[in-house]
């Protein structure tokens, strides 16, 4: 996923500015909609690249917090 974002989010003329838009398009907006409309609470959300899109899987009633390195904190 990081390689895809780095590849699609960089422009030789604009640098990394498109990266923010690509993160919004692939992750922030779809995940926000899923969290709001599905009323997700106490769950683990996993993001996986599927072609050029990101798919989210939700595991309900999981009480855990995962840091940026994927390590479960609680």
Describe what this molecule looks like in 3D.
The protein is an alpha+beta fold and 74 residues long. It is 38% helix and 22% strand. The chain has 2 helices and 2 strands. The protein has helices at residues 2-8, 17-37; strands spanning 43-50, 53-60. A two-stranded antiparallel ribbon has the order 1-2. The longest helix is centred in the middle third of the chain and has 21 residues, at 17-37. The chain starts with a helix and ends in a 14-residue tail after the last strand. 1% of the residues are buried. The mean pLDDT is 76.
Task: Name the features.
74 residues, alpha+beta, two-stranded antiparallel sheet, 2 strands, 38% helix
Unreliable spans: none
SSE ordering:
HHEE
Quaternary state of this entry equals: single chain
Number of strands: 2
Fraction of residues in helix: 25-40%
Which structural class should the secondary elements be placed in?
Answer: alpha+beta
Mean pLDDT: 76
How many whole angstroms does the radius of gyration measure?
A: 14 Å
Q: N- to C-terminal separation? A: 25 Å
Largest sheet: 2 strands, antiparallel
**Net shape:** elongated
Percent range for β-strand residues: 15-25%
């Amino acid at each position: 996923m990081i390689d895809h974002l780095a590849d699609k989010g960089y422009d030789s003329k604009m640098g990394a500015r498109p990266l923010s838009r690509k993160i919004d398009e692939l992750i922030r907006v779809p995940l926000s909609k899923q969290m709001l409309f599905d009323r997700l609470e106490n769950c683990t959300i996993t993001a996986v690249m599927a072609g050029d899109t990101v798919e989210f899987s939700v595991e309900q009633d999981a009480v855990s917090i995962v840091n940026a390195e994927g390590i479960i904190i609680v």
